[in-house]
Design a protein that fits this description.
about 70 residues; alpha+beta; two-stranded parallel ribbon; 2 helices; 2 strands; about 30% helix; elongated
């Protein structure tokens, strides 16, 4: 089994939360080493890899999909 560990991801829910709090949606994006929040598609690409034959030899991993936040 593998685990995908996401960083901050822009979704309709996260945008609604930012709006409700009166904060710009990208307030903390500068904290992400790659300079932006992730997208659902960023996560989907990794999940698709793990579910495909290309990921068949990957087991027991925690895959950080967080724009480099855990590497800081």
């Amino acid at each position: 089994m593998n685990v995908v560990s996401p960083g901050p991801v822009t979704t309709p829910g996260s945008r609604a939360f930012s709006d409700a709090m009166g904060a710009p949606p990208d307030l903390f994006a500068k904290e992400v080493p790659l300079g932006r929040y992730g997208s659902p598609e960023d996560l989907a690409e990794v999940v698709a890899l793990l579910a495909s034959d290309r990921g068949r030899w990957m087991t027991g991993g925690i895959i950080n999909v967080d724009g480099g936040m855990t590497a800081r």
